[in-house]
Structures are given as structure tokens and as C-alpha cells.
Amino acid sequence: MADITIYQKPTCSTCREAIRLLKDSGKPFTSINYYEQPFTKEQLKGLLEKAGLSPKDVLRTKEDIYKELGLAKKALSDDELLDLMVKHPDLIQRPIVEKGAQALLARPAESIQKLL
Hints:
Elements: E1 4-8, H1 13-25, E2 29-33, H2 41-51, H3 64-68, H4 78-87, E3 96-99, E4 102-105
Parallel strand pairs: 1-2
Antiparallel strand pairs: 1-3, 3-4
């Protein structure tokens, strides 16, 4: 049985709900605060590939840093977006949950059931 890892931000209500669902499932899991243990570019790219998502799919467009960087007006490559997401983790939708060869963006938190 593959281990479950949740990449999250403790102050995020969706992350807290996803962690509650994981605890309630009784399945062992690892929780990683990606603000304290930042993603590497390769790690984030690999997670998104497992989830079948592009960087644009998980880009948080309502964050101040998105506006400050003027990202709505720029046509950036996936590679450039990954660099920005690693540098500014507020740009990443959360939580991302990984189990073996699968990963998903757990929005809403209940979507985590697909991995349980």
C-alpha cells in the first residue's frame, strides 16, 4: 500500500479539512508544510505530472503576488511558471495529495476520497 503525502499550508481551511478527512480515514499519511519545506522545481513538476495538471491549472490568481508580478498580462512557459511557484509558494493551489503514482489537487477537500 502506497504512502499518502499531503502538501499543505496549515492556515488554509481546505488543507485543514483535507487533513481531517485523512485522519478520519485511519490511513497513515505524512503532512508537509511546503512553506517550511519548499518544493524543488523537479518535485513540483513531478507532482503536477502525476496529477495530470499543468502549472497554469494550479496557479492561484487571486493572490497579491500574482497581481504584483503582473502574471495576468504575461504569457509564461510552464518552466517559467514553475520557477515562480517555487520562489513564491503562495502561487500554488493547495492542498496537493500524493499516493504512489497518483496525485491530485484536493479542491474541494472531499476529492481526497479518490486516493483513499
